[in-house]
Amino acid sequence: MYAIIRIRGNVSISPDTQKTFEMLNLRRVNNLSVWPESNHTLKMLKKVENYSTFGIIDENTFKKVVEKRGKILKKDVDVKKASEEILKGKKFSEVGIKNCFRLSPPKKGFERKGIKKPFSIGGALGNRKEKINELIEKML
Q1: Which of 64, 51, 58, 60 is nearest to 130 (CA)?
Q2: Are 26 and 4 spatial neighbours (Cβ–Cβ below 8 Å)?
Q3: Average pLDDT, the chain
Q4: Domain 2-139 class?
Q5: Strand (E) or helix (H) holding 15
Q6: What is the helix (H) or strand (E) element at residue 22, kind and residue range?
Q7: Which residues does 8 contact at the CB level (< 8 Å), separation at least 6?
Q8: Model confidence pLDDT, tens digit, residues 51-103
Q9: Taking the model in full, what pTM does it have?
Q10: By CB neighbour count within 10 A (0-12 exposed, 13-18 middle, 19+ buried), where does 130 fall?
């Protein structure tokens, strides 16, 4: 599963990129959304990579995010069972949890070169692969 975190705001964003953020449920800065690995998701990530960071989230980090920051839509929802069901393949709406998690800014900030440079050269944007888990831990 891909974890996508919006890093930059709305100023001077093209309408196509803004629409893609809305489809990904990322309307604010420091929001996290989780999506399955597919070609459709990769195309959307390619469109928003200059304003967000993403990578593959592991099970332990995903469970922590759902337990700490999960918004429950239905009554009588056990968060631990819900996170396990999502990992097995159920959708967020079927389980009763929102697919948007509000995070705080990372402790001790983003990488050294800031939020306008790609991760490959020391910034914060783009594909982090497995290192997204470290950033999520800093933001919880």
Answers
A1: 58
A2: yes
A3: 90
A4: alpha beta
A5: helix 15-23
A6: helix 15-23
A7: 29, 50, 51, 52, 115, 116, 125
A8: 999 999 999 999 899 888 888 887 788 888 888 888 888 888 888 888 899 99
A9: 0.90
A10: exposed
